[in-house]
From TrEMBL:
Biased composition (Polar residues): 408-424
Pfam families: PLDc_3 (PF13918)
Name the UniProt record assigns to this protein: Phospholipase D4 isoform X2
Record bears the keyword Membrane: yes
Domain PLD phosphodiesterase, residue spans: 199-226
GO molecular function (one): catalytic activity
Gene Ontology terms: cellular component: endoplasmic reticulum; nucleus; phagocytic vesicle; trans-Golgi network membrane
Transmembrane segments: 30-51
InterPro entries named among the record's database cross-references: Diverse_PLD-related, PLDc_3, PLipase_D/transphosphatidylase
Protein's organism: Dipodomys ordii (Ord's kangaroo rat)
One GO term of the biological process aspect: phagocytosis
């Protein structure tokens, strides 16, 4: 995130983009794109700033629009309109210093602990896996202390009768972790969702819902390394019960699939349907700024009626871009990378190229480069790079020489930045 922000603040830098904009005027759009692309099997798409006139929506969906304020997602019918607050949060590996004055989000560990401080009644957590103590992997190092503090805080809250419900993926990659046994012994309800058996994948979402009104959503698993060793990005949304209760419906789909002998339902119960989606986003104020927002999910069998699918959300963000699309991803594979044999799958790659060529949108890509990077990725990046031609107004930037202090980049000529290791 920080590397990404720096690129943003330095449009004339090594990745100079003909149409790059200043940070201040375009932050909101960046946020929208980033949110939609970065967050695994669940994402939040947000557009801050001027929103299209409501009239359009009446034309498109008169009934649903007319109903929105009163039907809105439970809880607060007739109550005051949510006045939400959104804070970007991030973590940067401890050994990766940035120049003084670099833009930065609120530290993830601090945001998590503050969110737990706010909890009074309930916490729901979806995470691929849990590993909050260094002990899990035989490490005794100060960099695991923040994760351990989060675990202790959760135990304290359970002791204070705050309910904790956890949905996590089964089988888990963190086989030595005792976190969930410890929490369950203190009253937490835990469901292991057998995603591999059900859909041949994993539960990859990472989010929290606190008191049905605050939300954390990001790339970070419940892992101490996410707080000190890995680049992560996320958002905390405070005081936003409409969005929180919509996210709770997604949590309930996981909860249902984690029940004993659960099968993937043909149709999901009606109370898990949503009216908040791409066509009909939540409209509210975030820090006073008129904002639209919705949650998308994937894969499609896990999307009850009305839920926008992740792919559609990401495509909508790319296709809606007028000036730029900046993306920060761990891998860039226009192929079915996890299926064998791999198949070409150029849907997002095409959308980026179309944005650059058809609409003169400036496309920038940051891709992780680390020990586990598969060199098979590089030809895809070179291809995208070759597509750019500044003098023809096709602006595509795939950085080629950014080096990360303390890391060898010789094997990674195409874009080097530490990024979320959340798929690990
Ligand atoms: C961890 O290391 C510290 C000193 O570095 C030591 O005091 C402590 O006992 C160690 N803890 C464990 C569980 O080994
Ligand atoms: C804990 O919560 C339950 C249900 O919310 C309630 O019935 C019970 O009285 C609470 N106990 C304490 C000690 O607050
Ligand atoms: C949420 O709203 C309440 C009152 O409406 C306010 O007291 C509180 O500070 C807000 N919380 C945050 C985290 O903004
Ligand atoms: C949906 O209904 C079931 C039971 O009918 C209930 O347990 C669950 O909490 C409801 N979910 C939501 C999000 O309201
Ligand atoms: C880039 O575009 C310009 C103008 O259309 C063209 O003259 C030039 O040959 C192009 N460069 C490459 C490498 O295709």
């Amino acid at each position: 995130m920080k590397a990404w922000s720096r690129a943003l603040g330095d449009p004339s830098g090594p990745w100079g983009c003909a149409r790059a904009l200043s940070v201040s005027c375009s932050w909101a759009q960046v946020l929208g794109v980033l949110a939609a692309l970065g967050l695994g099997s669940l994402s939040l798409t947000l557009l801050l700033g001027p929103v299209p006139p409501l009239l359009t929506w009446f034309h498109m969906r008169p009934k649903e629009v007319a109903c929105r304020p009163c039907k809105a997602q439970g809880g607060e019918a007739g109550g005051p309109v949510d006045s939400c607050r959104l804070v970007l949060v991030e973590s940067i590996p401890q050994d990766l210093p940035f120049a003084a004055g670099s833009p930065s989000g609120r530290p993830l560990a601090q945001a998590w602990l503050q969110l737990l401080d706010a909890a009074q009644e309930s916490i729901q957590v979806a995470s691929y896996y849990w590993s909050l103590t260094g002990q899990d992997i035989g490490v005794n190092d100060t960099s695991s202390q923040q994760g351990e503090a989060v675990l202790r805080k959760l135990q304290l809250l359970l002791a204070k009768n705050v309910s904790l419900a956890v949905a996590t993926s089964s089988p888990t990659p963190a086989t030595e972790s005792t976190d969930l046994h410890v929490l369950a012994a203190q009253g937490a309800r835990v469901r292991q969702v057998p995603m591999k058996k059900l859909i041949g994948g994993v539960l990859h979402s990472k989010f929290w819902i606190v008191d049905r009104r605050h939300v954390f959503l990001g790339s970070a698993n419940m892992d101490w390394r996410s707080l000190t060793q890995v680049k992560e990005l996320g958002a905390v949304i405070y005081n936003c019960s409409h969005l929180a209760q919509d996210l709770e419906k997604i949590f309930q789909t996981y909860w249902a699939l984690g029940a004993p002998h659960a099968v993937l339902p043909q149709t999901w119960p009606r109370n898990l349907s949503t009216h908040i989606n791409h066509a009909q986003p939540f409209r509210g104020r975030f820090d006073g700024v008129p904002t639209t927002a919705y949650f998308s999910a994937s894969p499609p069998p896990l999307c009850p009626h009305g839920r926008t699918r992740d792919l559609d959300a990401v495509l909508a963000v790319i296709r809606g871009a007028r000036k730029f699309v900046y993306t920060a991803v761990m891998e860039y594979f226009p192929s079915t990378h996890f299926h064998h044999p791999a198949r070409y799958w150029p849907v997002l790659d095409n959308a980026l190229r179309a944005a650059a060529l058809n609409r003169g949108v400036c496309v920038r890509l940051l891709v992780s480069c680390w020990l586990n990077t598969d060199p098979a990725m590089f030809p895809f990046l070179r291809s995208l790079q070759a597509f750019g031609n500044a003098s023809a107004g096709i602006s595509v930037d795939v950085p080629d020489t950014l080096s990360v202090p303390g890391r060898k980049s010789s094997s990674c000529p195409w874009g080097v930045t530490p990024t979320s290791r959340s798929a690990a």
